[in-house]
Structures are given as structure tokens and as C-alpha cells.
Amino acid sequence: MRIELTINHQTKSFEIRPNLLLMELLRQQRCYSVKHGCETGDCGACAALVNGKLVNTCIMLAAQADGADIITLEAIGAPERLDPLQAAFVDTGAIQCGYCTPAMILAAKELLDRNSHPTEADVRDALAGVLCRCTGYVKPVEAVLRAAQQR
Amino acid sequence: MSDDFNVVGKSERRVDAVKLALGKPAFVDDIELPGMLHAKILHSPHAHARIVNIDASRARQLPGVAAVLTYRDVKRIPFATAGQGHPEPSPYDTVMLDNKVRYVGDRVAVVAAESLEVARQALQLIDVEYEILPAIFDPQQAMQPGAPIIHDEPDCSGVYDPQRNLIAHLHAEVGNVAQGFAQADHILEREYRTHYVQQASIEPHIAITYLDEDDRLIIRTSTQVPFHVRRIVARVLDIPVRRIRVIKPRIGGGFGGKQEILIEDLCGALTLLTRRPVRLEYTRAEELTAARTRHPQIIRLKTGVTREGRLTAIEMNVLENGGAYGTHSLTVMSVTGSRSLSLYRCPNIRFEANAVYTNLPVAGAFRGYGAPQGFFALESHMDELAELIGMDPIEFRKRNVVKQGDETPIAEVLGEGREGYKQIIRSYGLDECIERGMEAIGWKEKRQQAASSQQGPGVRRGVGVALALQASGIPGVDMGAASIKMNEDGSFNLLVGATDIGTGADTVLAQIAAEELSVPVERIIMYSSDTDFTPFDPGAYASSTTYISGGAVKKAAVQVKQQILEVASRLLEDNIENLRCEAGRVMSVSGQSVSYEEICLSALYQRDQFQIMAVASHMSYDSPPPFAATFAEVEVDTETGVVRVVKIVSAIDCGIPVNPQAAEGQIEGAVTQALGFALTEDMPHDGQGRMLNTDFKTYRIFTAMDMPEIIPILVKTYEPTGPFGAKAIAEIPINGPAPAIANAIANAVGVRLRDLPFTPEKVWRALHQR
Fold first, then answer.
1. pTM for the complete prediction?
2. Which residues in chain B are contacts of A131 at CB distance < 8 A?
3. Would an 8 Å CB–CB cutoff place A120 in contact with chain B?
């Protein structure tokens, strides 16, 4: 079947098999920030912003995303020009293994886009869908609060 | 002693942080190889069975299937899956594919196909006829006469007594326990139980293998132990070590689960057979059934104590469940004894331990490596002893705990897999850990409040404490090496075999090099690790990277610095004694100076040319213990049995923290894993050995919303044997939370839980059985 997606501001049409997962399609399109962690939509490592909403792409069919506008971490920041959230993650030490970092940053971005002055509880709520086994969430939460202050 | 450094002790930005913040393709799976095949493993549905017949012909005929391997297609070469030094202290009880399966999830066959979908279909088409054998799930029954023998194959070796399912046995004694018990006013005997938990790195196990243009097997794998992978895979595939190259890119967490050769052998075998790239990745369900776990242990403690609160004898008896294979079983229970029994001055200690096979998932290495089990028992027990003699638990501990200058004789007797070496405590910050931790948790007032309000329904609060120590590497066993090469812009390539698996080790090692060479961290180009290019390192385990690999980095940097000074001495026409390195230049007492750039250009191009470069190795007979005091504040709902942790204070003496921010990160992460161990993570089975919690909905690790407040405290000491005064940090913080929580629950509601995890049901039952 054929679908059309806008991935990181580029609109393309794709010929896909109906059971292709959005996660698979995005990784095939070299959006390597979208990580495989669990296949059940529990760990959040495969998160992407689909029409501005944080979605676990491992439990969404690519076909379901037909016509959608998708943003992955590849569209955010550059080595010399980090997004304030990325800079805050780097500066606070919120990145350990880095496997859940893309999803954490996208989750935080979605939060800050709708709530520029979040409380710590708001931040924890926003990050609750992304499992991390390294940081205990202490420094990621600190990073998001710091980025919010600087916005 | 000095801790006045330029780079060490500063929270430098992590050397890999920017690429990870941008989501750059840095992990095993983030590459494209033309013609790559996808592999899937057929796992056993039975806990214990013999394969009477296996027929893969239907699978092989499926279009898109490139290869199927069963036990009939591979050589039978026994090995240990444990990534440990050579010879491994683990038994050689595993073969790549066997005609017998020993747990639900064991390997039966492996398929490589053009797509994952075809590979999955092919698994369905492999016809296996099993002869079901009686299975054993209870470690206490495993050694009984008449129990089914799990490893009856004649070619396995290194098993203590396969006829009794006994993987390993340990016995160690210091002093005379009979005498010690005779001197005691009170003797207390208790039993504690720890359960199966899983490392649960968010990145599952994954390997991608391919042949390069020289027909060498390249293994790109998510591992903690690239050099052990090379050695062990060479053995299993029966090819020379020189034909294998292992590449470790960024790793998405390991925690011990990747100190194992779990899939690299199968993946490599498929590449050798098909001559094509092969990708093999575990699903989360496979991680939670067929990867590795923490060893469950039943620990019996018998202790003697005087009225004044002096320990006279400790007897610790461990029964450890190794699961279906014996990987790490011996050394894990040896660490259980050597760490926990080193914490207190007690003249008479007896340690006895047995590890047994069961038809359950395989236990392996997991952060703490036996110590969390040992300290859960010991530190729960210390509170029980204090209560028995009517003494404050902190006061009681202070009377018995080791001090600076003490030796830890049990660690010497037990060693790790073989006899150890004399250990003397040189750096010691435990007193300060206790003091600062008490203050941060509000110990005195909260402890009393709880004691006065234990009765009646409602939510009760309490606080608890636990002390712990760990080690810094395996003394006399593991050696790490590093090489440093200078470039003409005054930068340095630092190559280490050490494996940053997300810990920040690359940054810490770069800081050690930068400090010695008097340059900022940006001048260090860090690379880890690739068995072709980086010198040997055992890998990321046993809290060894900062202490052992860091020792090697420092030595290599000292040699490079000497070469820099020699060249500078020629350029400045001045004696080396008059020169010193500062901020990327060599300064002379006469006021002249020359930059590193000029020095390197001269050495490479102009005069007496040579490459400024050095390689150094480091091994240590010392393994200085880091210390910890952990404090927990909990709320217990007496109506529901729900335990909510309000706050954890984790005060750690890791010597000089090379990167305080990274050290805090280690504490925060370890504490969180320990919270799961104490409260929510569990791997029950259905009675037939089938795991019930096979996804993150049921295997519940803490989320950002579940977290208590965590207060990490770094207590600085200076370890004279460590690089710039450093000791280890990675494992020590995981030991304390479970016993501290148990002690806090006892303080809140007056019940003692000795069986992990503290689920609402268990707590509720304990409350109602009073």
C-alpha cells in the first residue's frame, strides 16, 4: 500500500507492507534516534512526535500515520547549535547511556510546547512514559526544569 | 596527599554527551549493511527435555530462509558464557546448541532469513520432538537424592558435583566460630531470601556480524566485555582469535547483563555459514526469559553478640540458585561472602555456600554481583541484633564496623574464584558517610517519632539505615591497558579497551589523561573499544574501570609526558628538572616556554623524529573498598500493605570522585535499581518454569513518577593506590537501599520482612500475622 508522510519537514510517499511498524519505517529512513526497546509500547524509547503528540512508534502501524507530520530528534539541534533542552541534558549530566535520551528530550519538548512553566510533578508526569535504567530520572528532571527556566 | 587538580574532581561535560543528545547513530543497530540477514532463536517451551528428533527441512525450504542451525549442524564445544578472565571460574557447561534443553527459553535452533518476518515464520516450521524430563524449580530440592540431574552430559567440566546439581561450593573460616559462640551472651539465627531480578537495560542484547574483505569475522555487539567476546567466540566457533574483530560502539546500558556471551556465537556462526551480514536482536520478552538475571539466594545467618554489643561470631550460609547454567555462580556467591563479611570487625567468621542448578532462567552478573544479596541479609540482621540487645542500630554498627588500617581477612581467604590477597583499608570515609547521612534524613527525630506511633491503623512513617562496602576491581586478576598518541595540534588519541556502557567511564578516563598531561579534556580524543585497535581490557565489570583502567591511563600519560619533556628539553636547551607542563605548554624556570604543538611538530617532522606515544598496563593486588551509608524513609499503609519510599539518602566514599556529576549519576541510577529490587521487580513462574512477567507492564521498573527523593552525598577521601585518589563507584550504591527499606519498615510498623521483594501482599500478611 502507499502512504504519504512528512518526516522532519520532508514530505515523501512510501510503498509499504500493511503490517510495517512506524518505528521500522522511521529507522529505515535513517531516523536512528528512534530506538527499539520493548515492542509493547511500555518503554517509550521509540517515541516520535506525530502531529505534535508523543507516540510510541513500536505499537503504531506506519499505515496509521498516513498523512501525518512526524518529528524525530534528528530535526532538533545541531552539534554547534544545541536546542536548549539538549544543552540542559548535556550540562546537568542527564545523559548516561543515551539510549532513552532522544525520547526523553522529545517528551520534554512536547511538555514545554504546551506548558512553559511546568512544576516538577508536571515534568515527572511528562517523562513517565519513558523508562530509563541509568539515571534514576533525577538529572533528566533537573534538565527539563532548567531548560524551562531558560526559555 | 593532594586533591588540588585542574580537571580531576570537576564535573566535566561528558565526552559523548553531544552526539547522544542529538540522537546520532552511535549504537550497534544504527548502521546499514547491504544484504543483511535477520536471525531469530527458537527457544525451548519446556523446562527440562531431551530433543529426540529435530527436523528443520520445512523451515529451510521457506523462501527467504538463508540458514537454520540446530545441534546437528554445529560443533559441540563446551564453554562458559561468562565474560570473565581466563581460565574462567565458571563451569564449561554450555554448548552453542544442545540436544537437551534445561529451562523455558533455552536455545533449540536459530534461523537467518531475508527479513525478520520470514525468520519468525521459519521458527514455526522447525519440527521438534521432545522427551519431557522431570524439572526442578526449588533450589532446596536440587541437591536431594533422586532429583533430576540437569547437567548429565559427560563433556561438561568445572562443575563441583553434577550428580547433585551442585555448581559450586565454598567454605571459608577465619578464627574459631565455636569459640566465638561460646563467648556470646546472645545468639541469633535468621534466614533471608532474595529473588530473581533482571538487569533490564533499555537497549536489548544485539549483535551484528559480517565478514570483511580479508574474510575476518567482525562482531559489532552490545557488550561490556569485547576482549572476552573475542576469546570465547573464537573457542566456540573453532577459529583463531586473529580472525575475529570485536567492535563495541555506544552501549545502551549493561549492568552486568552484557558481561556475557549471549548471542555473539550464534550470530557469528550464521555469518560464517552464509557469508553474509547477520543481525540478531533480543525482544523484551526474550530479555525477561532468556537473558541473565541476579542470582536468587537463601542466606542463613547465625551470630553471637555480647551484652555490650560486640560481635563474637558470624556464620553465613548461602544457598544460591544459578538457574540452568552455572555462569558467574561461584564468583557471585564468593562476593556475597567476601563483601558483606568484610564490613564488621568480628574475630570469628565462617562462610559456607552452595550454588545449585535449577530448571529456571540463568542467573549471571548484575551490578553488585552477590553483594546486594549479602548486605540485604547482613544489614537486616544487624538491626535485629541491635533490637535484641536494646541498642540503637547506628550505635551498634559503630561498635563493630571496620576502621581505617584494618585488614579484611575474609576477602583474602575467599578471593574471587581463587584465593585472594591481603587487603588493608587505607582510605576510609564511613564515619562521615554515617554522620552526613543521619543529618540529611533527620535520623534522630524521625526514628523517635516512628517508635512512639507504631500502633493503630493508617499510614505509618519510619526510617532505616544500612551500611555497605564494595571493591575496586578484582585484585591480582584483572589487568587493563591504555595507549596515548600525540598529534601535531597538541591533542592526544586515548585508546582504551575499557568499555563505557553508559557510565561515563570514557569521560573519567579522558579526565585522568588530561590531568596528567596538563591539557583540557577537549584535547583528548577518546576511543573505546575495538579489539583490533585498542589495547586489552577485561571490560566494564567489578567496578574496575576508574581504578584499574584509570591506573593504566595515568601510567601511559606519565610516559607520554616524559617524552614531551625530553623533546622540550632539546628545544629549550634546558634540563628536564627545570621544566614543567602547564596548560598545553612546557614552561622553564628561566621563563621560556614551548607549546605542545611545536613539540609534536618537531618530534614528527624536524629533529630526531619519532611518534610521541606510550602504552601502559595496570593490575593491582589492592582493591580498596568504597563505603556507603544508606538511609531510607518510608510510609507503610497498614490497610493495604503498600510501602512508599519517601526519601533515600546515599552517602558514598568513593575516594576522590573524578567526575562528581557522573558519580552522582551512578548513585541515583543504582539506588533506583535497588528500589525495584526491594519493592516492585520480580520474576515469578507458572509452576512449570514459564516466566509470567515478560514485558515492562508486568516487570515493573521505576518510572519518573514512582521516584522518591534521592539525596546523593559524596564523601571525599584520598585513596593512595588509586589514580588521583579515586576508588570505585558503580556498584556500591546498589547494596544499601533494600536492607535500609526493610529496617525502615520495621521502624514504621514493627514487622520484620526477610523475603524480598516487599510487595503489598507480603507486607499486609506480615502485619496481620502479628
1. 0.98
2. 202, 696, 701, 703
3. no
